[in-house]
Amino acid sequence: MTLKRRDFIGHISKAGLLSCLPLSGLKAMDKTVAAANETSNTFLTAPYLQHITPEAVTVMWITAEKCFSWIEISEPGGTPEKVYSARNGLKQAYNRINKIRATGLRPGTTYEYRIFSQEIREFKPYKVTYGDTIQKGPFTFSTPALKEEEVSFVVFNDMHNHPQNITELMGKFAPDKGKDYDFVVYNGDSFNWVDGEEPIIKDLLEPSGNVFSTTHPFLMVQGNHEPRGNYARELFDYFDYPEDRCYYAFTRGPVRFIVMDSGEDKEDTSVEYSGLVSFDDYREEQAKWLEKEINSKAFKQAAFRVVFIHIPVFHSGDWHGTTHCRTLFNPLFNKGKIDIAISGHTHKYGTFDADPATHHYPIVIGGGPGYVGRGGGKRTIIKVKADHKSLSLQMLLDDGTVAGAYNLKKK
Questions:
Q1: Residue 298's pLDDT band (boundaries 50, 70, 90)?
Q2: Backbone angles phi, psi at 169, to 5 degrees
Q3: Which DSSP string corresponds to 48-71?
Q4: What are the pLDDT digits (tens) for 326-379?
Q5: If pLDDT is split at 50, 70 and 90, which confidence band does 94 have?
Q6: Which stretches of 270-319 are DSSP H helices?
Q7: What residues pair up with 110 in beta bridges, in sequence order?
Q8: Domains, the chain, ordered by start
Q9: Residue 99: which pLDDT band, with cuts at 50, 70 and 90?
Q10: Which long-range contacts (CB under 8 A, 24 or more apart) does 321-324 make?
């Protein structure tokens, strides 16, 4: 296996893998590979996968202390190669949020990886004092084939700091990784607001790591609650987005996926935002990009076109965020002939058939987080599977009731 260079990724020559015990998930104990004194450093999360393609994947994790971190990756039975993040000649170091992108991978191939973090106890201009190295693994993942015949995924929305939604609903309705889903989508409002790192770990990364994210990636779609709170501007650092922004497109198998950021639900001038948001301009920027995307070769050649957007452009009232998305995005969705849009936001699950007078495509709205009280709603899990001929969608309630379903044929 050869790992290609990128301006932000480096690699060094093959090194023998230090002996270790097989570890898995957050329940595994950390093992120090640099024998020495007890260290205060530990992994705060299991590794979680982001932005997977046939030839690359991003591995992320968080440590308690500032470190220099890397992964060792190989095909099963192969010699591990060490991969770290580097930019402008500097290896990424003295940080806690680790984002390592391995490139030059082979499509349709299973890989084994371990994560390593060496504590940096003191960082002076001409001397760095290292502490112990901790490691976790091995874990495995598989790169997508270049021409996947089918793709499947699971969608959550509006969890609002309810981590049990992930563990309970995945356990009931998507227990078989690799068969039930290729990736998971968090379709907005995973949090009530973002005021620190702890809820990001406790309410999202930890349950994800316990269930699937060491082996399968997830997409983080921004809702109207993620931009709230004094830590909202740091949230972006915890994920890896294609094109380094919260709106983008990608292809898996027969499907072209469009991820939109619907922004806040009220006017930019609303008192709640204290003059610190600019979502109108941001949505207009996205509309210009979307116009180009629907004219792209990848979009036009896809058997199906699926949109993830937190605020539905219809059937969610007439708040400013909804109507602005409707004005800017819906004409382009219609023009591009998207096949389906999957949303949340209202906390009221529902399916809305294509309407030639408004939206020419079905809209699926997932349910609420399931808590008791104002706006609790009923939580849902949405399961989708597509091949080159058809796309099937089921929205399920806790008891297995099918709250909505579509079986779309290729146009």
A1: very high
A2: -75, -35
A3: EEEEEETTEEEEEEEEEEEEEEEE
A4: 999 999 999 999 999 999 999 999 999 999 999 999 999 999 998 665 566 799
A5: very high
A6: 279-293, 297-301
A7: 142
A8: 9-142 (2.60.40.10), 150-409 (3.60.21.10)
A9: very high
A10: 321/224, 321/262, 321/263, 321/264, 321/265, 321/266, 321/279, 322/265, 324/263, 324/279, 324/280, 324/283
Q: What is the dihedral of CA 327, 332, 333, 335, to 10 degrees?
A: 130
Q: Enter the tokens of residue 293.
A: 């995307």
Local confidence band at 2 (pLDDT 50, 70, 90 cut-offs): very low
β-strand 93-103 against 81-87: which pairing, if any? unpaired
Mean pLDDT for 130-150 is 97
Which pair of structure tokens corresponds to residue 198?
A: 């702890």
Helix crossing, 320-336 with 279-293: angle to 10°? 10
What number of CA atoms fall less than 13 Å from residue 187's CA on the CB side?
Answer: 36
Cα-based torsion angle of the residue sequence 83, 86, 92, 97 in order, rounded to the nearest 10 degrees = -70
Judged by average pLDDT, the poorest of 21-35, 36-50, 185-199 is 21-35
The closest alpha carbon to 121, from 46, 33, 37, 237, belongs to 37
**Cα–Cα nearest to 55, from 2, 112, 92:** 2
- CA dist., res. 316 & res. 345, Å (int): 8
**Which range is least confidently modeled, 74-78, 197-201, 312-316, 358-362?**
74-78
Could you tell me what percentage of the chain is helix, strand and coil, using 3-state DSSP and rounding each to the nearest 5? 20, 35, 45
Task: Find the mean pLDDT for residues 102-109.
Answer: 98
Q: If we measure between CA atoms, which residue out of 126, 182, 192 comes closest to residue 155? A: 182
φ, ψ for residue 24 (rounded to 5)?
A: -150, 145
Give me 339's structure tokens: 């096949």
Q: Is the CB of residue 308 less than 8 Å from the CB of residue 185?
A: yes
292 within 8 A of 336, measured Cβ to Cβ: no
CA distances from 389 to 60, 62, 407 (A): 35, 41, 10
Report whether 275 contacts 267 (CB < 8 A): no
First to last CA, the chain: 40
